Structures are given as structure tokens and as C-alpha cells.
UniProtKB/TrEMBL annotation:
Protein's UniProt keywords contain RNA-binding: no
Pathway assignment: Lipid metabolism; fatty acid beta-oxidation
Catalysis performed (reactions): a (3S)-3-hydroxyacyl-CoA + NAD(+) = a 3-oxoacyl-CoA + NADH + H(+)
Statement: the UniProt record of this protein carries the keyword Oxidoreductase: yes
Record keywords, A-Z: Fatty acid metabolism, Lipid degradation, Lipid metabolism, Lyase, Multifunctional enzyme, NAD, Oxidoreductase
Cross-referenced Pfam families: 3HCDH, 3HCDH_N, ECH_1
Matches recorded under InterPro entries: 3-OHacyl-CoA_DH_NAD-bd, 3HC_DH_C, 6-PGluconate_DH-like_C_sf, ClpP/crotonase-like_dom_sf, Enoyl-CoA_hydra/iso, FA_oxidation_alpha_subunit, NAD(P)-bd_dom_sf
Biological processes per GO annotation: fatty acid beta-oxidation
GO molecular function: enoyl-CoA hydratase activity; long-chain (3S)-3-hydroxyacyl-CoA dehydrogenase (NAD+) activity; NAD+ binding
Protein name per Swiss-Prot or TrEMBL: 3-hydroxyacyl-CoA dehydrogenase
UniProt domain 3-hydroxyacyl-CoA dehydrogenase C-terminal: residue ranges: 509-604
Positions of the 3-hydroxyacyl-CoA dehydrogenase NAD binding domain: 327-505
Taxonomic superkingdom: Bacteria
Length: 735
């Protein structure tokens, strides 16, 4: 047996330590499942075995779930979304998916008590394995967590989790945990009734053995005659309530965009009415059905495979040695600079945080201190660690302290001359191979690089706000930026545990270029007389985190007015004004700046609580559509999503972005683009380029040229291409 280290102790307890071959973390491969089946068989047939303990031989966790890469055979990665025979595919998926249920159930019914000694993280199939054990002891280690996060990649628990968890903790608690993919820390898992004991890490195996020796019961709760579902099953009045409320809640939260969540609900509702063996089959049937949906396929590809690849720096040129960073200088200690200093120090790098005077620099450092205090108060960090991080940051107005920095990140006001000035000051102190990165959000990198004596070392490193929370960083190549500089900028972004995408130097780069049209489309709708509440409700129903108008309030209306006027200036005669932009400028002139001062499209009560629509919106554009029927709502949703997607297609045509994986991952991490779609490019691929072009042509006729499909899309439609087919690459630079 290769994947479990098995030892029969003197009490007849078979201790099986999981150790997946060739993997740093335990995951269930086909071979590991076969080995587990052999353990179940041995427990069943070998009289010397009195009980079984399942634990992990790896120091970094118990089990992270199924090995998706092996199970899905790379099909999602390569972009072959369309299979020729869906019927056969569904049957194959059922057979493959049922394997985990068959093996776990064999262990559960082996006739000997089975205890799980969970000595580390157990997620997905790992948590499902321990739910199939009769007893669960969990380590109290700081990094330990359990949970069923499958919905986050468009699936739901398909290894018995959707059936065993509700039988263990009740349908309501189980549905809530599974539909958000919630994870439980040891104390929470104990309080929720998911585990029986929480003990020190080195005691888990002993505690599991003790249970076997003293109480060992080989029959699962749900296999006992007297078993009742906690809180009642679907036919029980309280249980039925859970499903009625659950359905309503689900609709409210996910707008029916996620087939996984709908199928999870079906599986739980139907499964709870059946004995466990039939219930597991029901689960697998819905699981396989989910796996076949375009949403699950696209989500798995983007949120699992591509997220891993891009998160490891898929766009990094090879052949450049990895850079270690000992000191980074951050210019400008404002909102962005302070955030950048914080995330840099958090990864153990010394930071010189520079502003115009000591007070301004100190203000930036205090911001870091505030973030650290919050982390300590939430139990996420020890006081010592927080102090260590803060000590790494030196706040100063003295440019001389930049000396010795491997990298400078510039985040001063958005002003070309000012940025040129600080570039010169910083470069005077820098070693010739140090990298200079600008966090500009709108000024072309090639223009800023003109101020640099080493334009090949000059690059854009564009963070998103708030820096401590937002995972995406756009790396922008200027005309003269070298590959070595690109590699080093990516090394920095990976070091601070963020996800880099590589984009070329066009106005607004990639993320803002695609996102701004979403808000602009909201303004078009407002000016057409569509009620703001409809616009925002429909906006949220697309799967975007907020509707366009409330999103504008969050960004700040004055900033949007500034961006609009600068765009108009830059585009000159080519600028096409957006209906409603004058009205927003008027709102700003009247002191309505958005959420930050409590007044924008909405009024935000000072005491907190729900916002309400500002009554003045209807004086600016009288409402002509106060209600939208389903067909109208569908059309509005399409406008909000397609205007972003067509912009992304233009970015590919212009070479602003070149890797569909980066576009998809970037769209979800950068501006929360409808995750159910798998990202902005997967949306087009799953619609089909030809159908997308036909829709764009129709919408251009109705709403204007902003929807016009670029030539690239027409060419792709003519050839029957997909974005992943045409632009997909395993390794960007090697290709
Ligand atoms: P901010 O106004 O909060 O901070 C700018 C800081 O630069 C101020 O503390 C100011 O005192 C300092 N500064 C001005 N002249 C300086 C000099 N000569 N030497 C050193 N420091 C100087 O602005 P924010 O929002 O942090 O933006 C900074 C940059 O980041 C801008 O280029 C902006 O476009 C970009 N950006 C902003 C985002 C946002 O959401 N606010 C997002 C991404 C990029």
C-alpha cells in the first residue's frame, strides 16, 4: 500500500497514516482511494483488527480533498469545454464521482469502529472522509480548519458531505455551511457538533485509540434504527420550514446564478427522505449533473486551475534568477502607499516609507499600526508578530534612506510632473539593477518612464484598494521595460502573496478599462429613465458584488468625475460623453461625493443601517421604467455584463492582455466580475463567440457603437474559435 502507512498495534488497532505519493499535501487520487478501500476490506475481514484510526503522515495537514487535477484529467485546463457526447460524459462523471462515496461507505460499514485523528487541515473530501468515520478527534493547532468549500469552485460536496453533515448537525446549519463554503476552526467545529473532541496536536491518535478501546461503536448514527435528523427532515414541520426559507434566501443571495447551490439544495432535500445508501446515490447524481454545467466547468478552470497557475506567476519570464527582497522603498504614504508598506512588511521585508514631511510619513505608518491592531484584536496575529512587522517600517521624509532598496514602489499623487520629480530623487539613491514600480492608475507607464534614467527597469505595479484585502496586482509593461524587470516585479508580488497579471500599457490598463463601462452603462440606463433601484437590483443579479450606481458611490463620485474629465481631455475630439456624466458632476458640485461623505446616489445614515435612494435622482432623470418584467431584466443584465466582456475582447485585440487565464482570474479578483461565469473571457467562450457577436450586433443597433464587436471577435466567430483555443497557453513565455 503506497498511500497509507499502516500499522497494527498491540491492541489490534490498525493505525492508517495518509501519505499521498508524490504530493506535498494529502489529496485523494484514484490510487489513494483504492488503498482506502483495501483498508476497509481488511478491517472487515481480518479478525485481528479491532478498530481503525485514520490520520495523516504529513506535517502540513490531514487532507485537502480530491485531487481535481487527476480526477478531471486536465480537460478544464486545456479549454475543451464542449464534449461531443454529453450523455456518455454524464455517465462517466457519475461513475467516477460515485467512487469516493463507495469507498467511504465501505469504511463506514466495515463492522469495526473507525476513528479519525485529524492532525491538521481537512477540507472538502478530507472533511467528508472524517464524516464517514464513527468518531472524530481534531487537533487544536493554529492552522487547523475543517470545511466543505466546494461551492467556491462551482461544485458541492460530492463525497457524502451533503448527506452526512445535515444528518449530523441538522439541515439548516449544514446548508448554511455548505452554501457559503464556510470553514470551521477547531473550537467552532466542536461547538457545531462536527467533531467529538479537540485535543493537542500530539494527542489526536491517542484520543482516537482511547475511544476505540473504551466506547468503540462500529455503527454510524444514521445506520441506527432510532436515528432522527436533528431539527427534523423535510417532512417535519420545522424541517420543511428550513427548505422554504432556504430557497428564498438562496435566491436572494445567489440570484439562481450558481447551479451548484441549487443542486445542493435538491440533493439535501431529496436525500434526507431516503436511507443513507440511496441518499448517497442521489448526491452523486446531482453532483455529476453540476459538474457538467458550463458554470462549474468555467469556475473550476478559473478558480482552481488558473488561480493556482497565475498565483504562481504564470506570466513570469523564465531564465531570470529569483529575486530576494531585503528592502523596499514606498514613495507616498497616503491611502495606497500605506497599504503597500503594510503588505510588504507583512511578508518580512524592510520598508522605507517616504512622504513630503515627517508628519505625513508617520500618518502612513499609523495606518499600518491600525491594521495590525485590528489583526491582533481579532486573534489573527500575536502582539509580538505585530510589533515585529511595525518595526520593519521606517517612516521618513529623507530620500537618502532609499539607499540599499531592491525595489521602489511609487504611490504619490496622480500627477505626471510630481511622479517625474520623485523618480529622479529616488533613482539617485538606487543601485543600477533596482526596479522602479509606479502604482499609477491612469498615466501611461511609457510616459512616466521618460523621467527615468533606466527605463528598462521601470514598470507599473498597480495595486487595488484596499491594498490589504485586494489580491490582484496588475504588472504593466512600458515600451522599454525589460523581461528581467518583469520577472523581478512578479517575484515581489508573489512574495507579498498577491496574484500578478501582466498587462500592456493602454489607458486604464485592463481591470479599470473593463470595469468602468459597467458603471457607465448604469449611467446610460439612469438617463434612459430606468429606475435606479432596478438598475442596482439587476446589477447585483448579474453576480457583480454591487449594482453600478451603488458601486459608483463606493468608489467616490468626485474621483469618477475627475477620471471622466481627464479621459475627455486625453481623447479630445474622439471623446464620446456618457449621458448622465454632467448630472454626476452636478451632484459632486452639490457636495454629494458618494459613500465616503454619506451622500451620493444613496443617502447613508450616520448611525449605520440601510442606505436609501436619494430622492433627487428622479429630478435629474424622470423614471419611465419603474418596474422591469423578467425579459426586460434579462436584457438589462446582458447590457451590464456584455459591455464589460466586449471591452475585454478589445483588450485582447489590442494586446493589452494576452492570456485568457489572467483575464479571467484578474476579472474576478480585481473587480468581482460575476464569479459564476468563471470570469470575463470564460463568459464569452461559454456563450460562444458567434452567438456573442450576433448579440453584440443586435445591441449595437439598439444602444449604440459602444457594443460594436471588434474585428477579432468577427474573425474568431468565422473560424469557430474560442478564446482559450486561440490564446490559451500553458506557459505564456515559453510558448
Ligand atoms: P493619496 O492622496 O492618499 O496619497 C498620496 C500621497 O503622496 C500623500 O500622502 C502625499 O503627501 C504624498 N506625496 C505627495 N508628494 C510627495 C512627494 N514629493 N514625496 C513623497 N510623497 C508625496 O493618494 P492615493 O489614493 O494613495 O494614490 C496614490 C497613487 O496610487 C496615485 O497614483 C493613484 O492614481 C494610485 N492608485 C490609487 C488607487 C485608489 O483607489 N486610490 C488605486 C490604485 C492606484
Amino acid at each position: 500500500m503506497d498511500n497509507f502507512k499502516v500499522e497494527l498495534d498491540s491492541d489490534g488497532i490498525l493505525v492508517c497514516a495518509f501519505d499521498t505519493v508524490g504530493k506535498t499535501m494529502n489529496t485523494f487520487t484514484k490510487a489513494a482511494l483504492d488503498d482506502l478501500m483495501a483498508i476497509a476490506e481488511r478491517a472487515k475481514t481480518d479478525a485481528a483488527v479491532k478498530g481503525v484510526v485514520i490520520t495523516s503522515a504529513k506535517s502540513n495537514g490531514f487532507c485537502a480533498g480530491a485531487d481535481l487535477e487527476e480526477m478531471l484529467g486536465g480537460a478544464w485546463e486545456s479549454g475543451t469545454l464542449d464534449k461531443t457526447d454529453p450523455e456518455a460524459e454524464l455517465k462517466g462523471a457519475f461513475a467516477a464521482a460515485f467512487e469516493m462515496n463507495r469507498v467511504y461507505r465501505a469504511l463506514e460499514t466495515c463492522g469495526k469502529p473507525v476513528a479519525a485523528a485529524i492532525n491538521g487541515l481537512a477540507l472538502g473530501g478530507g472533511t467528508e472522509l472524517v464524516l464517514a468515520c464513527h468518531y472524530r478527534v481534531l487537533s487544536d493547532g493554529p492552522k487547523v480548519q475543517m470545511g466543505l468549500p466546494e461551492v467556491k469552485i462551482g461544485l458541492f460536496p460530492g463525497g457524502g458531505g451533503s448527506q452526512r453533515l445535515p444528518r449530523l448537525i441538522g439541515a439548516q446549519a449544514a446548508l448554511m455551511a455548505m452554501s457559503d463554503g464556510k470553514s470551521f476552526k477547531p473550537k467552532e467545529a466542536l461547538a457545531a457538533g462536527i467533531v467529538h473532541e479537540v485535543v493537542a496536536d500530539d494527542q489526536v491518535v491517542e484520543a482516537a485509540k482511547t475511544w476505540i478501546k473504551t466506547k468503540g461503536d462500529p455503527v454510524a448514527l444514521w445506520d441506527k434504527k432510532e436515528f432522527k435528523i436533528p431539527g427534523g427532515g423535510p417532512y417535519h414541520p420545522a424541517g420543511a420550514q428550513v427548505f422554504m426559507m432556504g430557497n428564498a434566501l438562496l435566491r436572494k443571495q445567489s440570484f439562481g446564478n450558481y447551479p451548484a447551490v441549487i443542486n445542493l439544495m435538491h440533493a439535501v432535500y431529496e436525500g434526507l427522505q431516503l436511507p443513507i445508501d440511496s441518499a448517497l446515490k442521489v448526491e452523486t447524481r446531482y453532483f455529476a449533473k453540476t459538474l457538467m454545467t458550463p458554470q462549474a466547468k468555467a469556475m473550476i478552470r478559473t478558480l482552481f486551475f488558473s488561480m493556482q497557475a497565475v498565483g504562481k506567476g504564470s506570466g513570469r519570464p523564465s531564465g531570470v534568477p529569483k529575486t530576494e527582497f531585503t528592502q523596499v522603498a514606498v514613495l507616498g504614504a497616503g491611502m495606497m502607499g500605506a497599504g503597500i508598506a503594510y503588505v510588504t512588511a507583512m511578508s518580512g521585508i524592510k520598508v522605507v516609507l517616504i512622504d513630503r514631511d515627517q508628519a505625513a510619513a508617520d500618518k502612513g505608518k499609523s495606518h499600518c499600526e491600525g491594521l495590525l491592531k485590528k489583526a491582533v484584536s481579532r486573534g489573527k496575529m500575536t502582539e509580538d508578530k505585530a510589533k515585529g512587522v511595525l518595526d520593519l517600517i521606517t517612516a521618513t521624509p529623507d530620500y537618502g534612506l532609499i539607499k540599499g532598496s531592491d525595489l521602489v514602489v511609487e504611490a504619490v499623487f496622480e500627477n505626471t510632473e510630481l511622479k517625474a520629480g520623485v523618480t529622479k530623487l529616488a533613482e539617485a539613491e538606487l543601485a543600477p539593477d533596482a526596479v522602479f514600480g509606479s502604482n499609477t492608475s491612469t498615466i501611461p507607464i511609457s510616459l512616466l518612464a521618460k523621467a527615468s534614467v533606466r527605463p528598462e527597469n521601470y514598470i507599473g505595479i498597480h495595486f487595488f484598494s484596499p491594498v490589504d484585502k485586494m489580491m490582484l496586482v496588475e504588472i504593466i509593461m512600458g515600451e522599454k521595460t525589460s523581461d528581467a524587470t518583469l520577472a523581478r516585479a512578479i517575484d515581489y508580488v508573489l512574495k507579498i502573496k498577491k496574484t500578478p497579471i501582466v498587462v500592456n500599457d493602454e489607458r486604464f490598463f485592463f481591470a479599470n478599462r473593463c470595469f468602468i463601462p459597467f458603471t457607465a452603462e448604469g449611467l446610460h440606463m439612469w438617463a434612459e429613465g430606468i429606475a435606479p433601484t432596478i438598475i442596482d437590483n439587476v446589477g447585483r443579479a448579474t453576480g457583480m458584488p454591487r449594482g453600478p450606481l451603488e458601486m459608483m458611490d463606493d468608489v467616490a463620485l468626485d474621483l469618477l468625475v475627475k477620471i471622466t474629465s481627464e479621459t475627455a481631455k486625453a481623447e479630445g475630439a474622439n471623446y464620446i460623453p456618457i449621458p448622465g456624466e454632467g448630472e454626476v458632476a452636478k451632484m459632486v458640485a452639490d457636495g454629494r461625493l458618494g459613500r465616503k461623505n454619506g451622500k451620493g446616489f444613496y443617502d447613508y445614515p450616520e448611525a449605520g443601517g440601510n442606505k436609501s435612494l436619494w430622492s433627487g435622482t428622479k429630478d435629474m432623470f424622470p423614471v419611465t421604467m419603474a418596474e422591469a418584467d423578467p425579459k426586460q431584466a434579462e436584457e438589462l443584465k446582458k447590457r451590464l455584463l456584455y459591455i464589460q466582456a466586449v471591452t475585454a475582447a478589445r483588450c485582447f485585440e489590442e494586446g493589452v492582455i494576452t492570456d485568457p487565464r489572467e483575464a479571467d482570474v484578474g476579472s474576478i479578483l480585481g473587480w468581482g466580475f460575476a464569479p459564476w461565469s468563471g470570469g470575463i473571457i470564460s463568459l464569452i467562450d461559454s456563450i460562444g463567440v458567434a452567438s456573442f457577436v450576433a448579440e453584440l450586433d443586435r445591441m449595437t443597433g439598439l444602444y449604440g457603437d459602444r457594443f460594436a464587436p471588434p474585428q477579432l471577435l468577427r474573425d474568431m466567430a468565422a473560424k469557430g474559435e474560442t478564446f482559450y483555443g486561440r490564446f490559451g497557453k500553458a506557459d505564456k513565455k515559453a510558448a
